[in-house]
Task: structure prediction
Amino acid sequence: MAFMDKMKRGFGSTFSFFGDAWSELRKVKWPSRKELTSYTLVVMGTVAFVTLYFYVLDLGISELIRLVIE
Result:
């Protein structure tokens, strides 16, 4: 009987967790379409910049290593 009581308490807390999470999600201020678009563009621009930076850095280091080896 103790096992079944533990199971009931475990599932009860799981359902309670999801209920609490759902109520917290209702309190969130979701971004508007315009805000979301601008945030997405900022992220994509940042990713492109960082990618280009590391690409150039990698080319430079590769060239230095090539010069040292030869």
